[in-house]
Design a protein that fits this description.
alpha+beta, 9-stranded mixed β-sheet
Length: about 280
């Protein structure tokens, strides 16, 4: 399929190659992954067409692009807001972990799942406003590197390749339906993760509450936004995230860069949730 959209966003890999671009047509959007596939989305976000798939792009790769890259953006197009976050369910409500790539969101969530806390979502946390801010469930499964799967003490046989261009695996415990939380529930905490890098802080676990203004800045940085040229969409997102920052405790979580510390981090989070 040939088209010539008005491109308004490009994301590049460290070497300068374009990984993703999004653009507008008269009545639709184009979400393009050059060399892999393109997705055409109607203005309502209710119809998605995959086209121009490369010969190298397997069905597994197309599925990954759709559910992990395209759908998080369409959540925003369809009137909800979403964070680049992984979440688990606890007795105190939904607990979300977010932060820069590589800070260990999915790995920490995996340790919670193995400890009996159901997964809510991986890498995309959709939210809605009811009487409180609620988290909406995604799908069962975490995308993890093999060393993270081993680091949380999980068997590798419960993992499958994510896509042909990455060595990440999609892992789920498959022990029971209780491993996935399929109902909306109150969002109890959002933790902004940071790895302790210095030798002095290498074993330190710290949880610090953020003021609403600082929390809002942190949430904006990790929010999915579909159309950065749409003022109404951006304004809606800003006001919603402002209410999240006011109603949901957002905290900085500093954790050691060490798999052996995951159990202690998990306990520190659970203690914080009970306060």
């Amino acid at each position: 399929m040939q088209f010539n959209p008005q491109w308004y966003l490009r994301l590049r890999l460290p070497g300068g190659k374009t990984w993703f671009r999004s653009g507008k047509l008269a009545n639709s959007y184009v979400l393009s992954f050059p060399g892999l596939a393109d997705f055409v989305v109607d203005r309502s976000g209710s119809q998605i067409v995959c086209c121009n798939a490369s010969r190298d792009a397997t069905i597994r790769t197309i599925r990954h692009l759709l559910i992990d890259q395209v759908l998080p953006l369409i959540v925003n197009l369809r009137g909800h807001e979403a964070l680049h976050a992984t979440a688990v369910a606890t007795q105190r409500g939904i607990c979300a972990f977010t932060g820069a790539t590589g800070t260990g969101k999915s790995t920490l969530a995996g340790s919670f799942v193995l400890a009996g806390y159901p997964l809510v979502s991986d890498d995309c946390l959709a939210m809605a406003e009811r009487k409180t801010i609620v988290a909406l469930p995604g799908y069962p499964g975490l995308r993890l590197w093999d060393d993270s799967i081993r680091g949380i003490g999980a068997p590798l046989q419960n993992s499958k390749p994510v896509a042909h261009y990455t060595v990440k695996s999609r892992w789920s415990r498959h022990a029971s339906t209780n491993d996935f939380h399929s109902k909306p529930q109150r969002l109890a905490r959002v933790y902004l993760l940071k790895r302790a890098r210095s030798r002095r802080d290498s074993t330190r676990i710290a949880i610090r509450p953020l003021a609403p203004a600082e929390a809002l800045i942190g949430l904006i940085k990790v929010a999915y936004r579909f159309d950065i040229t749409d003022p109404a969409m951006l304004e809606r997102q800003f006001h919603f995230l402002s209410r999240v920052a006011e109603q949901v405790p957002v905290k900085r979580l500093v954790m050691p860069d060490d798999f052996s510390a995951l159990a202690d981090v998990r306990q520190a989070v659970l203690r914080d949730l009970s306060e």
